[in-house]
Amino acid sequence: MRGSQDYELANEELYDESDVYRGFIWVLTKKGRTSFLSKMKKKQGEKHDATLIELASIRLQATSKDVAVTVTLIRPLSDNDGIYAFELRPNPRKSTIRVMVYLHHDDTHQAVLLFPFEGHKKKSAGIDPKYLDKAKRLAGIARSLCEQKQRLEFIDTTM
Q1: Which residues fall within 8 angstroms of residue 142, CB to CB, at 6 or more apart?
Q2: CB under 8 Å to 10, separation ≥6 — which residues?
Q3: Regions in the chain scoring below 70 on pLDDT
Q4: SS3 state of residue 12
Q5: Local structure of 69: helix, strand or coil
Q6: Degrees (nearest 5) of the Cα angle 121, 127, 131?
Q7: Domain residues for 120?
Q8: CA 86, 88, 30: angle at the middle one, nearest 5?
Q9: Is the preceding peptide bond at 76 cis, omega within 30 degrees of 0?
Q10: What backbone phi and psi angles, to 5 degrees, belong to 23?
Q11: What pLDDT, on the 0 to 100 scale, is given for residue 89?
């Protein structure tokens, strides 16, 4: 996949409300850069949002794709590309937190957070096509990186 050499899958550690470590999730990040989730954790006005994304990620990895869709934890956006979205509506907040998510082979344990995005802003129903196009491009890169990781893990286990 063209452009995948410019990206990496960063491991973001996940902690629950009691600050107990619950594993990690991959975040697609440009090489040498800080992930969007790490940046959110450092910004005073976005720490709470980052915590909500972490908690949703923990829930996602604890269930199957079918259950996550049924309980509307994630919303499918593109059947063929493995693209889904977190749409978190915390109270008392007025706006929704949205994050594009790629599920490698529809496996919630191989979820990759792609980027946060804004909603439709009351212009029209649905997601702005520019966000969906970006998600498709980045999901292709994430797919390539996930497959590379799987090949490397396979080689490590056979040696």
Answers
A1: 7, 9, 26, 28, 102, 104, 112, 114
A2: 26, 27, 28, 29, 35, 38
A3: 1-3, 79, 92-93, 120-125, 153-159
A4: strand
A5: helix
A6: 105
A7: 4-158
A8: 45
A9: no
A10: 105, -155
A11: 82
The per-residue pLDDT for 2 is: 55
Nearest to 83 by CA among 37, 59, 117, 39: 117
Q: How high is the pLDDT of residue 121? A: 59
- CA pair distance 57, 86, nearest whole angstrom: 9
* Tally of domains within the chain: 1
In the block, tokens 């959110």 appear at 40
The model scores a pTM over 0.85: yes
User: Two tokens at 57?
Assistant: 């990620």
What is the reported pLDDT for 80?
A: 80
N-term to C-term CA, the chain:
27
